[in-house]
Amino acid sequence: MHSFWKNYGSTLLLLAGLVMGGVLGVVLGEDAAVLRPVGTLFLNLIFVLVVPLVFFSVAQSLVVLRKNGVIGRVLGTSVCVFLGMSLITGIFSFGLMSLWNPFADVLGQGGEKTFSGGFLDEEVHIGDALVGAFTVNDFPLLLSREHLLPLIVFAALFGLSVALLGQKVPAAEKMVGEGAQIFMKMMEVLMRMAPIGIGCYFADTIGQLGGQIMGSYLEIFLVVSTACAVLLFVFYTLCALYCRIPLGKFWREMIPSAATVGTCSSAACMPVNMAAARRLGVEDQIADGVIPLGTNLHKDGSLVASVAKVLFALYFFGITPAGTGAAVLVVLLSILQSVVVGAIPVGGMTGELLVCAVLGIDPAFAATLMIIGTLCDIPATLLNATGNLVAATLVQHFVRK
User: What angle (nearest 5°) sits at the alpha carbon of residue 250, between those of residues 302 and 386?
Assistant: First the structure.
């Protein structure tokens, strides 16, 4: 019982807060606005931590990769495999959610569009939008949650430079590592307030929009779970066949990885996946490099949930995504969001804030998107935990060829 509560306690408390918030929103109606200051207080505390947390976490990730010998050895092949798997996952998830659309009830509930400088502004050229999304023209602009992508690019370059310099800059390396630990701990402490803060925010949202939106959340959970199940049993089986791994042996090694869903953390699966990868014929240096790297950067389950979050945001603000351009936007933004989730442990709503920043919508909407992530945590973790074992076998296959 103690182990169960340790693994799932925070998620269960957050779900309890959402349920209580939903009930209060339905009962109080528009009077639930009295709870808005509590939700806003929690969001503001999250917002002020996002910029330093992103900077130190991303920079630290590059330093760790360099120390583990991943950079310059198996990084290229691994990134190609991660990207290929992510594209297939994202395209499939977008297609499934286009056929089984759980977002119809929220279409236009966000009122008039509030986009400003994002991808969805009709007057903004796509090239200008890309430049604006990935870069800023002055350093102080990096210190804003509205420019998370430029901050990530800057932090990655900074971390890579520190890693390449190595022992020439020991103080910088120490600063990055200790800074990441400090801000992660701050976020971890703050997230203990999430059941109250998010619950109050959700109560206000339900009070303003009506209880029908709660049915949409349940349907989103069902479609995300279905997508994860298909990818697990069909896509991963096809990967095993492509690598010429006997299916009996493959699934025998996949079961321990899948069982770690009980830890509510794909990172806890690393030792299990490394051992399983070796038994499936993956070389030591590949297993030791690909699986830790994938734990940080490759999360198929989080990607499925990210597609749901991006589509929810679009429909909420009255945008019905149609055509190739919309599909590309949704899939690529979802991949970015899932990478941010993996690269910044205990990152709170960092990935959701990234979605808001790129789309150009109110950052407070990140709390609404976080609800989807909480509901879909178990099926997403299941796919995250098993996906990196599959990725390691694919990297081994391509290296041999």
Answer: 15
CA atoms of 215 and 307, how far apart (whole Å): 18
The DSSP secondary-structure symbol of 348 reads T
Type of residue found at 88 = I
What region, left, alpha or beta, does residue 108 occupy, with left being phi > 0 and alpha being psi -120 to 50 degrees?
A: left
What is d(CA 38, CA 269) in angstroms, rounded to the nearest whole number? 36
DSSP sequence for 194-223: HHHHHHHHHHHHHHHH-THHHHHHHHHHHH
Phi, psi of 118 (to 5 degrees): -95, 180
Distance CA 123, CA 147 (A): 20
Token match 């009709």: residue? 122
Tokens 């020991």, residue? 170
User: Residue 22: which residues within 8 A CB-CB, separation 6 or more?
Assistant: 202, 203, 206, 211, 214
Q: Which residues are CB-neighbours of 337 under 8 A, at least 6 positions away?
A: 302, 303, 306, 309, 310, 351, 352, 354, 355
**Tens of pLDDT, residue by residue, the chain (401 residues):** 555 556 556 667 777 887 788 788 878 887 888 888 888 888 788 778 878 877 887 787 777 766 655 555 567 788 888 889 999 999 999 999 989 888 877 766 666 555 444 555 555 455 555 666 677 778 888 887 667 778 878 888 888 888 888 788 888 888 888 888 888 788 778 878 878 887 887 787 777 766 666 677 888 889 999 999 999 999 999 998 998 888 888 888 887 777 655 445 555 566 677 778 888 888 877 776 677 777 767 888 889 999 999 898 888 888 888 777 778 888 888 888 877 665 555 555 677 887 887 777 777 788 888 888 877 877 888 888 888 889 888 988 887 76
By three-state DSSP, how is residue 52 classified?
helix
**Amino acid letter for position 315:** Y
Q: How many CB atoms lie within 10 A of CB 131?
A: 12
Euclidean distance between CA atoms 231 and 278, whole angstroms? 23
The token pair at 234 is 């069909």
Rounded distance between C-alpha atoms, residue 353 and residue 341, angstroms: 11
DSSP 94-162: HHHHHHS-TTGGGTTTT-S----SSTT-TTS-HHHHHHHHH--SSGGGGSSGGGHHHHHHHHHHHHHHH
